[in-house]
Amino acid sequence: RLSLRLNETPELAALPWEYLYGTGEIGFLALSAHTPIVRFPEIMAAIAPVQVQLPLRILAVISAPEDVAMLDGAGEWQRIQSALASSIKERKVVVERLHKATLAALRDRLRDLDQPIHCLHFIGHGLFDRQAQQGGLLFEDEARQSVLVSSDLFAAHLSDHRPLSLVFLN
User: How far apart are CA 146 and CA 152, in angstroms?
Assistant: First the structure.
């Protein structure tokens, strides 16, 4: 395994190391099973394990605005239910689907600290605004039309919700 530690050379971090090429029979290193290339930032301190009081609460946000290409949100919801069926039956996990995929509905649900959300699973479209140089997620408005929520605004809505430990963007 070839590990690239580029913390002290940020000008090299942006280069496409996956295209690293060796002469002769070596070729592209990333294509070889013998020389996988792994990028990772060095972390100064160990990350503490997450402590959650059971049941683990997962909130699925399935955003399906009518003005963008349809995704298989129902199929993804079924796969989540199926994968966690035994844990749900044993009451170790509670999986909930947000009733509306609006930012306001998400904010309101996160405020219910009697049933805190530990994991947020977003199923929907994401976009990157080249002009603003920022990504975002497509939520719905009340009329089920798309609303681009910037990554900064999304993060601001989640930052105060302390029980939330994982956000999965699908």
Answer: 18
